[in-house]
Amino acid sequence: MVDLYSQYTEIKEEIDNAIQSVIDKTSFVKGTEVNSFEKELATYLSVKHVISCGNGTDALQIALMALGLKPGDEVITTTFTFIATAEVIALLKLNPVLIDIDPNTFLIDVKAIENAITNKTKAILPVHLFGQCANMEIIMEIARKHNLYVVEDVAQALGSDFYFSDGTKAKAGTIGHIGCTSFFPSKNLGCFGDGGALYTNDEDLAKKIRSIANHGMTQRYYHDHIGINSRLDSLQAAILSVKLKKLDNYHKRRQETAAYYDRELSGLSWLQIPQRVSWSNHIFHQYSIILKNAPRDEFKNYLEKNNIPSMIYYPVPIHLQKAYEQYKFNTTQFVNANFVSQNIISLPMHTELSNDQLLYICETIKKFKP
């Protein structure tokens, strides 16, 4: 699914030099590389503040902590996402309010958000799934109308562009109050371990986020907030600085791979290729298809027998997860998420896929008899 070694060999000299530089300085925590990377990412995103942290889950938790939400407050989010999105809500004793998805784009159904708002609702947490943005223009209109915070989960769409109806654009994660991302190795911008970041244009939020991520400190040994210990180490920051310069090219290569899949697979009546939205470009963290008239397990086994990896993101939506039974979700209201979770499957998607590999994958898929 991801060929990290081939990606490394392509930029080996730059990566090795960056790592060696950190080792030579022996400043492994809060080194100059961290500060440099935060500034570089802020410039790339055209956002005022980037605060790095230990991982994407921490980023989401720190964001909600910075907003000062109280136990029992409600946060609206999608049921079809990686568990971390809802996990941090539950860990902070907030109440996750789950929304169904659009069955074609897999993004949160913005039409259902307003109906889920109560007097306990304090925030909306949209997820920019698989590489394209949720409809942030509508989400921000709803948030302003009801005086709600918006925290964007950008773990799968860092660098994606959102296009507003007035012709302007902004990077995913810079539209709401706080954007949160992950640098897990398989992400479009991935480090060689765990890492994450938050970004915001709000000066006060930025100061609070930076403090919370560092034990709540405002100056050494002075703690103004209840915080956590969540830091991006200097080695990872150095690696990310190298890869950030190549990110737009990585996106271009992923988009070319997606276009190849589209051309070869769109004629198959038993599957649906990924649908694009009009308000965002798609940077293809995943290339996920829907099997319309084909048994998924049989198809997955067929691919495996032909040495083609595949993954199911996500086989169980959050409203059906055992850990979340306590919230007593009405499981029948998530018709689209239930259908998608039973029929979705993702094909290999990374920057190192060759034309020969893509040809083999597509020709093998075409030979499958549903």
Describe this structure in words.
There is one protein chain. The chain is built from twelve helices and 14 strands. Strands 1-9-8-5-4-2-3 form a seven-stranded mixed beta sheet, with helices on both faces. The mean pLDDT is 97. It is an alpha/beta fold and 370 residues long. The chain is 37% helix and 15% strand. A hairpin with a 5-residue loop joins strand 6 (161-163) and strand 7. It has helices at residues 4-10, 12-25, 32-45, 56-66, 84-91, 136-146, 203-212, 234-244, 247-265, 296-305, 335-343, 355-366, and strands spanning 49-53, 74-78, 95-99, 121-125, 149-153, 161-163, 169-171, 178-182, 196-200, 217-219, 222-223, 271-272, 287-291, 344-347. It folds into two domains: 4-100 and 107-244, Type I PLP-dependent aspartate aminotransferase-like (Major domain) (Aspartate Aminotransferase, domain 2), CATH 3.40.640; 247-366, Aspartate Aminotransferase, domain 1, CATH 3.90.1150.
| CATH fold assignment of the largest domain | Aspartate Aminotransferase, domain 2
The topology string of helices and strands comes to HHHEHEHEEHEEEEEHEEHHEEHHEH
For the biggest sheet, the summary is: 7 strands, mixed
> Considering the protein shown, what is the CATH homologous superfamily of the largest domain?
Type I PLP-dependent aspartate aminotransferase-like (Major domain)
Tally of DSSP helical segments: 12
- Integer average pLDDT: 97
SSE class? alpha/beta
Q: In short, what is this structure?
A:
With 370 residues, the protein is α/β, with parallel strands linked by helices. The chain has helices at 4-10, 12-25, 32-45, 56-66, 84-91, 136-146, 203-212, 234-244, 247-265, 296-305, 335-343, 355-366; strands at residues 49-53, 74-78, 95-99, 121-125, 149-153, 161-163, 169-171, 178-182, 196-200, 217-219, 222-223, 271-272, 287-291, 344-347. It has a 7-stranded mixed β-sheet with strand order 1-9-8-5-4-2-3, sandwiched between helices. It has a 3-stranded antiparallel β-sheet with strand order 12-13-14. The chain has a two-stranded antiparallel ribbon with strand order 6-7.
